[in-house]
Design brief:
heterotrimer, A mainly alpha (283), B mainly alpha (266), C alpha+beta (357), A: 283 residues, mainly alpha, MetI-like fold, 13 helices, C: alpha+beta, Rossmann fold, OB fold (Dihydrolipoamide Acetyltransferase, E2P), 2 domains, 6-stranded mixed sheet, 5-stranded antiparallel sheet, 36% strand, elongated
Chain lengths: 283, 266, 357
C-alpha cells in the first residue's frame, strides 16, 4: 500500500516542483518586491495609494467588472437555455457561439476596432444609409464614455461564451426527470426556470461567476488595444509601470493588489455563497 | 404557433449574427485594398487583395513571430504533457493522503493572474540567461497550461474504466505497460483535443509573452507592440492571422468543446 | 380518479415504431401493470399517457375527456419516476408540498396534506431534511408521497422499484399495492419484472415491439397466454417449447416428436403445432392425467425449496423440469417425468398465437 503511495507521489512530484518554481516562487518574490520600498517597507504602497491613476484604475476595473459580469451571466443563461432545447441545427449555433473562445483578447479587440474605428463598418453603414454625414468617433481620450462602452461591449462579446459553456455543461448534467417531474406537477415555464432549473444550476453559476469576476479584474488586452491608458485598469497599469516606466517595484505593487482582490473574491465565493443542499449531504 | 416559430428562428439568427459579424468583417477588412478601406462609401471592396497579409508576414516580421508562436506552443505542450500526464494519471488511479489538497492548490494556481508572475519571472530569467528567448516564454506558458493538463488528463483517465488496465495486469503486463498499451490508446482522442486546447491557450497568450521578450516576440505580442503603430489594415490582417488557426482548431475539437472548457474553467 | 381509455395510439421516433397502435381500457381505481422487455414501448406508452411525450397518432381519454393534446400539467395526473426525481434543492416537505402551492392551495391545507401523505408513507420525521441526506428507499417514499398528495386522477409509475435493493423492493411491493388499494387511485405501473407485475397488478398489459400482446389478470396471463411471447415471458424458469407434428387416430389428435406423444383435446387444424409446457407442470410422479417421458439428467439447480432439472430428451431437445422441495438427481441419470396434460399449451407455429382446443 505504501509503495503505491510512493509511486503516486513520484508521479505528481514533477508537477508540484514545476508549479512551485514557476508560480509559487514568482508569487512570493512579487510579494517581497512590492513590500521592499525605497527606504522602508510599504513605501511603494504608500506611493501607490497617493497616485490618482491607481484609484482611477481601480475605479474603472470595478466599473467594467460591474457592467460585464452581470450582463454576461444573464446572456449566457439565456443562450444556454436556447441551445439546450436541441433544436435542429443547434450544434452549428453552438460552434458559432463558441468561436470567441478560441480568440485572444487582442484579436477580439482588433475585431471590435474593425467595427468601431472611424473608418469602421458601423460608421460606413451609417454614412451609406445617410444617417450621419461624418464618422462618429468611438475612440480617443475625448470620448472616454464611448470608449468605456465599446470596451464593455467587446468584453461581453468575447467572454460571454466562457460563461455560456460552463452554464451549458451544468444544464446538460441536470437529470431530465427533475424537469419532467416539474411538468407533471403543474409548474409553469417561469416556475420551472426559477424554482427548478436555476437552483439546480447554482453550482455552475457560482463557478462561472467566480471565473468571470477573477478574469474581469485581470482585464488588459482589450482595454490596452482599444483605449490605451485613456481608461486605466489595474492590469494595464502593471504592464505600463513595468514596460514603459521600467519600474518593477510599482508593477509588483499593482500585481499584488490584483492578487489580493483575486484572493478576496475567491474566498467570498468559496466560503460565503455555497449551496446549502449540496453542503449538507453527499452529492 | 407559426409566429412563435418565426420568432424562435429570428432569435437564433440574431445570436448567430451577433457572434459572427465581427469575425466576418475583420476578414473582409483584412482583404480590402487600402484605398477602398479609406473610402467611406465603399463597404464591400471592388476586389480582394492579399497585400496586407503578405506585407505583414514578410515586411513586418509577422512570419518570424508566427514561427516563434508555434515553437512556443509546441514546446509548452511537450513539457506540460510530459510533466502533467503522470500527475493526472496518479490523481485518478491512486489514493493517497493530501490528494484533495493538491487538487485544490492546482485549481487555485489557475486563478492567479499571469500578470503577477511575469515580472519576477523576468528577474529569474535574467539570471539564467532565458530573457528574450523562445524557451523562456515556453516555460512560462507551461506554467499556465500545466494545471489544465493535470486536471483534464485526470478527468480523461477517470473516464476509462480501471478494469481494462487491471485485466491487462492480470494477463501479465506491468502497470506501466498496461498504461502504455491499454489506457493511453483509449485516451488518445481526448488527449489530442486537450493538446489542441493547450495550443490555443499558448497561441493567444499575450501579456507574459510581451513582458518576457523583446526581439523574439510571439505573434500576439508582436502585434500588440509593433503592428499597433502601423496603419489600420495591417491590424486587421494581424487579427485574421491570429483568428484563423484558432477557429480551425476549435472546429476539429467541437465534440469535446463543452466538457473541456467546463473543466479548464473550473 | 378516472377511467383511462387509449385508442389506436401510435408513436414513431423517425422510423422506429415505439408504439404501433395500442388500444387499452383501464377501469376506475384499477392497478394496471405495463410489462415487457426493454424497448417494448411500455415507458413510451406511460409517457404518452402523462403528456410528456407527444403522440404521432391516436387518442387518450380520461373518463370522457380527451387529453391527447393537453400538456402534462393540465391532465391532473402525477408520476413517480425511475430516478425518483426528488428535487435536491428542496427539503422533503417542500418537495411534497410545492405541487400544492403551485395549484394555489391555502397554506394550512398544504400543511395538512403534506402531513397526511408523510404519515401514510412513514416519513414524517424526514420532512425537514434535504434529499441528499436520505437513503434510496426514503427518497422513493418521498417521491410517492409527492405523487399522491395531489389526489391525482391517474397515478403513473415508471419502474419505481428498479433502483432499490432486493429486500427493500419486496417490502415496497406490498406497501405500494396496499397504499393504492387504500387510496383507490387509478394506477399505471411500468416494469420489466414479472414478479412485480404478477403480485401488484389487477390486470397486466404485456407488450412487445410497440404492440399490446395480451391484457388480462395475472391468472389469465399465466394460465392462458395469448401467444408464444407471453407464454415465454411470464413464468420462471421459462416454458418449454417443442415444435411437434400433428397426427390423428380416428377422432383423436396427438402432437408427436422428441420421444413424446401428447394427446390433444381437439383438432388443431394444423400439420404442426408448438407445444408449451411449463417446468412446474412436469412432475416426478404419475398422477391424474399425465404423460410419461423419459429423459437424461444433464444439470441440476438445487434451490432447496425447489429443484430445477435440465434434461436431454432421447430424440434431441431439452426439457426443463421444476420439482418442489430438495430432490436428488444424478447427472447422466435416466429418469421418468410426467407431463400434466391439463396444463399444456398449444400454439400456431406460424402466427405464434394460442390455439384454443
Amino acid at each position: 500500500m505504501s509503495e503505491a503511495k510512493t509511486v503516486a507521489w513520484l508521479l505528481i512530484l514533477p508537477t508540484i516542483l514545476y508549479l512551485a518554481f514557476f508560480i509559487g516562487y514568482p508569487l512570493f518574490s512579487t510579494f517581497v518586491m512590492a513590500l521592499s520600498g525605497e527606504e522602508k517597507a510599504f513605501d511603494t504602497f504608500l506611493n501607490l495609494f497617493h497616485d490618482k491613476t491607481f484609484w482611477d484604475a481601480l475605479k474603472y476595473t470595478l466599473m467594467l467588472a460591474g457592467v460585464i459580469v452581470p450582463v454576461q451571466l444573464v446572456l449566457a443563461i439565456a443562450l444556454a437555455l436556447l441551445v439546450n432545447t436541441k433544436f435542429k441545427g443547434y450544434s452549428t449555433l453552438l460552434y458559432i457561439v463558441t468561436i470567441p473562445l478560441a480568440l485572444s483578447d487582442v484579436t477580439a479587440a482588433l475585431m471590435s476596432y474593425t467595427m468601431f474605428s472611424p473608418m469602421g463598418y458601423i460608421n460606413k453603414f451609417l454614412m451609406n444609409l445617410g444617417l450621419i454625414s461624418r464618422p462618429i468617433y468611438f475612440f480617443g481620450f475625448m470620448y472616454k464614455t464611448r470608449e468605456f462602452w465599446v470596451i464593455a461591449l467587446t468584453e461581453i462579446w468575447r467572454a460571454t461564451p466562457l460563461v455560456f459553456v460552463i452554464i451549458l455543461a451544468g444544464l446538460q448534467s441536470i437529470n431530465k426527470e427533475y424537469l419532467e417531474a416539474a411538468d407533471i406537477f403543474g409548474f409553469t415555464k417561469a416556475q420551472k426556470l426559477f424554482k427548478i432549473i436555476l437552483p439546480l444550476l447554482k453550482p455552475s453559476i457560482m463557478s462561472a461567476l467566480l471565473m468571470r469576476t477573477l478574469f474581469a479584474f485581470q482585464i488588459f488586452g482589450v482595454v490596452w488595444m482599444l483605449a490605451g491608458r485613456d481608461i486605466p485598469v489595474l492590469a494595464g497599469e502593471t504592464y505600463y509601470q513595468y514596460i514603459n516606466l521600467n519600474n518593477p517595484k510599482m508593477a509588483s505593487a499593482y500585481a499584488m493588489i490584483i492578487a489580493l482582490i483575486t484572493l478576496i473574491i475567491s474566498y467570498i465565493y468559496l466560503f460565503g455563497l455555497r449551496s446549502k443542499h449540496l453542503e449538507e449531504g453527499v452529492r | 404557433m407559426m409566429v412563435k416559430k418565426i420568432l424562435f428562428w429570428f432569435v437564433v439568427f440574431l445570436v448567430a449574427a451577433w457572434f459572427l459579424t465581427p469575425v466576418v468583417f475583420i476578414f473582409l477588412a483584412a482583404l480590402t485594398p487600402a484605398q477602398d478601406y479609406y473610402n467611406p462609401h465603399k463597404i464591400f471592396p471592388s476586389h480582394f487583395t492579399l497585400d496586407h497579409l503578405y506585407k505583414l508576414f514578410f515586411v513586418l516580421d509577422g512570419w518570424k513571430a508566427t514561427i516563434i508562436s508555434i515553437e512556443v506552443a509546441l514546446i509548452s505542450i511537450a513539457i506540460s504533457f510530459a510533466v502533467g500526464l503522470p500527475a493526472g494519471y496518479a490523481m485518478t488511479r491512486y489514493k493517497f493522503p493530501g490528494k484533495n489538497a493538491i487538487r485544490l492548490s492546482i485549481l487555485l494556481t489557475r486563478s492567479i493572474p499571469l500578470i503577477v508572475l511575469a515580472v519576477p519571472l523576468m528577474v529569474i530569467y535574467m539570471r539564467f540567461n532565458l530573457a528574450d528567448s523562445v524557451m523562456g516564454v515556453a516555460l512560462a506558458h507551461t506554467a499556465m497550461i500545466l494545471p489544465f493538463v493535470v486536471l483534464i488528463t485526470s478527468s480523461i483517465f477517470s473516464g476509462i474504466s480501471v478494469e481494462y488496465e487491471e485485466a491487462a495486469m492480470v494477463f501479465g503486463l506491468t502497470r506501466f505497460k498496461a498504461f502504455i498499451r491499454i489506457t493511453l490508446p483509449l485516451a488518445l482522442p481526448g488527449l489530442a483535443a486537450s493538446a489542441i486546447f493547450s495550443f490555443i491557450m499558448s497561441w493567444n497568450e499575450v501579456f507574459v509573452a510581451s513582458v518576457l521578450t523583446l526581439s523574439n516576440r510571439t505573434l500576439p505580442a508582436h502585434i500588440l507592440n509593433t503592428a499597433m503603430t502601423s496603419p489600420d489594415y495591417f491590424k486587421f490582417a494581424a487579427g485574421m492571422i491570429m483568428a484563423v488557426p484558432a477557429m480551425i482548431f476549435i472546429f476539429f475539437t467541437k465534440k469535446y468543446l463543452v466538457s473541456m472548457w467546463g473543466i479548464s474553467l473550473k | 380518479m378516472a377511467r383511462v381509455k387509449i385508442e389506436n395510439l401510435k408513436k414513431y421516433f423517425g422510423k422506429v415504431k415505439a408504439l404501433d397502435g395500442i388500444d387499452l381500457e383501464i377501469e376506475d381505481g384499477e392497478f394496471v401493470v405495463l410489462l415487457g422487455p426493454s424497448g417494448c414501448g411500455k415507458t413510451t406508452l406511460l409517457r404518452s399517457i402523462s403528456g410528456l411525450e407527444k403522440v404521432t397518432e391516436g387518442k387518450v381519454f380520461f373518463d370522457d375527456q380527451e387529453v391527447t393534446n393537453l400538456p402534462p400539467k393540465d391532465r391532473n395526473i402525477s408520476m413517480v419516476f425511475q430516478s425518483y426525481a426528488v428535487w435536491p434543492h428542496m427539503k422533503v416537505a417542500d418537495n411534497i408540498g410545492y405541487p400544492l402551492k403551485i395549484k394555489k392551495y391555502p397554506k394550512d391545507e398544504i400543511e395538512k396534506r403534506v402531513k397526511w401523505a408523510a404519515e401514510l408513507l412513514n416519513i414524517s420525521e424526514l420532512l425537514d431534511r434535504y434529499p441528499a441526506q436520505l437513503s434510496g428507499g426514503q427518497r422513493q417514499r418521498v417521491a410517492v408521497a409527492r405523487a399522491i398528495v395531489l389526489e391525482p386522477r391517474v397515478l403513473l409509475m415508471d419502474e419505481p422499484l428498479s433502483n432499490l435493493d432486493a429486500l427493500l423492493r419486496v417490502k415496497m411491493r406490498s406497501e405500494l399495492k396496499k397504499l393504492q388499494e387504500r387510496l383507490g387511485v387509478t394506477t399505471i405501473y411500468v416494469t420489466h419484472d414479472q414478479v412485480e407485475a404478477m403480485t401488484m397488478g389487477d390486470r397486466i398489459a404485456v407488450m412487445k415491439d410497440g404492440k399490446l400482446q395480451q391484457f388480462g389478470t395475472a391468472s389469465e396471463i399465466y394460465h392462458t397466454p395469448a401467444n408464444i411471447f407471453v407464454a415465454g415471458f411470464v413464468g420462471s424458469p421459462q416454458m418449454n417449447f417443442f415444435r411437434m407434428r400433428v397426427s390423428s387416430e380416428g377422432t383423436k389428435y396427438f402432437a408427436v416428436g422428441f420421444g413424446m406423444k401428447i394427446p390433444l383435446k381437439g383438432d388443431p387444424r394444423k400439420d404442426q403445432v408448438v407445444m408449451g409446457i411449463r417446468p412446474e407442470h412436469i412432475y416426478d410422479q404419475a398422477s391424474g392425467s399425465t404423460q410419461e417421458v423419459e429423459a437424461e439428467v444433464y444439470f441440476v439447480e438445487k434451490l432447496m425449496s425447489e429443484t430445477i432439472v435440465h434434461t436431454n430428451l432421447p430424440e434431441g431437445g431439452r426439457l426443463v423440469v421444476k420439482i418442489p422441495g430438495d430432490v436428488s438427481f444424478q447427472e447422466g441419470q435416466k429418469t421418468k417425468f410426467y407431463i400434466d396434460l391439463d396444463k399444456v399449451h398449444v400454439f400456431d407455429p406460424e402466427t405464434e398465437e394460442r390455439i384454443k382446443l
